[in-house]
Amino acid sequence: MLKFLLGVLSGVILVFFAIGLVFLLLLVAVGSSGPTIADEAVLQVRLSGGLPEHVAEDVSFASLQGKPPVTLLTLLKAIEEAAADDRIKALEIRFDRLRVGWAKAQELRWAIDGFRESGKPVYAYLHNAGMLDYYVASVADDLRAAPESLLDVKGLRAEVMFYKDFFDKLGVDVEMERIGRFKSGAEPYSRSEMSDEFREVLDLMLDQYMDQFLDGVAERRGFTSGELRTLLDEGPFLPNRAVEVGLIDGIAYPDQFNDLMSEELELDELNKVSLREYVSAGAVTLEESSSNRIAVLYGVGTILRTNGGLFGGDRVLASDAFNRTVRQLREDDSIDAVILRIDSPGGDAIASDEMWRELNLLAEEKPIIVSMSDVAASGGYYMAMIEDAPILAYPGTVTGSIGVYFGKLNLRGLYDKVGLKKEIVSRGRFAAIDSDYLPLGEAGRAKLREGIEHIYQGFVTKVADARGKEYDAIHEVAQGRVWLGTDALENGLIDELGGFSRAIELAKEKAGIDEADDVSLVIYPATKNLLEVLLESEGLPQVKLSLGGIELLTVVDPRLPALLEGGMLALTPYSLTVQ
Is 378 a catalytic residue? Predict the structure, then answer.
């Protein structure tokens, strides 16, 4: 009887599932034509929260119609297409706490500049704007703010949390070993304050970010860098004051802002098309009809061997899955060249090495261009060490961090506090080296150091070979030190400062494609649409706890998945947010 009932229940579920699929397909068929773009329209882009490099799963109905999801590349392509689209008369960008790194912000500035070069105006409207919002918005021809908004432009700060005293109170002893005097990843767990080396690097990074901000904004808003630096000490700014000092052009409610655009564009009626509508209308196509095909291979997230389980999700770059994708790409004869797009702080050292191996095998078959995003450091830099592969980065890219560290928790003090005891029976001198109940000891620490020195030497050797330099020359700029793109270029760690458009130019050049020819950009791994997600779903989904778009499981430290998995880490020394 039980089997009969289970069979009936399974049948009912399958019927409803089939009906649901048919319903989805009908919706897609009905809406397959997409929205219509009116003549003399204004493309409206809203920049709020994050802007992903890659979307693994797109469960929107647009995905069933073959339309690309909204990512950084899609946005850049939309702005580029709109500049040449006779139906688009202007670009409007609304800012509300953009949460990206400095590299993505610089790519956005370049894209908006490219639109302005077409002769079409750019209008920017600020709801709640911080330093990065304003940095990007300052490129616009007309910049206005909401009457009750706050222009939170007041300079930069970096905050680093230290956990040692907290662990001491719990009775937890964090034992760390590192290679590289600037490899500061262990410091938040083993110290109560920054070392001199840690502070030296952070001070330099803040100075460079500030210079990039001042130079970029001052040029557009009619200040000198010195004048703008002095002005920042007065921030944050109320809208009226921001107008008085020349940071913005005026104050307006949204309807007044629309009236302003209508008047300046000489339009009787203001027709706006959102970014999503523009994409859905088919105006943005990554895969052109061209037979010239360039793959964009994404390496995004903290590097682990697996997907990270509960603490995984979009923040994890799982080496097993990545390597399968690289092998598929290697066997795809239709691909002429590959742009490897990296946005990763590194992670597991072994996983990074395995990814490096697969990428170098791919390089034997197809030319590769490395394009670094906000961060490509430690293991994220390691995977970029590909023979004959030019490396591009932005002035604000965080890269380098050529170093290794390892840590373990000795929980005996905590166990004693809560009344737990262990007895350990072992065979072998170092059988209990990774026990959470015993300290490392001098012999254990020496044994551990052998391993991380081996990985560090291999890391430096791979960099030296790929960059065509001597070991000692790389060791001098390594030591776990983080560099921004400008210094990385000066130190020979990258080849050029540039973004997506330059990466495409180089890929065409390497593949022997004429500069004027169109190319199709093929995304690897391909984004799964709603139907594929439903059909391929198996087992329990990953759990995500979020609030306001922020994943709570990684809000303290986005490197948490790698730290929890353990092992030797080629990981950026710290999680840094400059704001």
Answer: yes
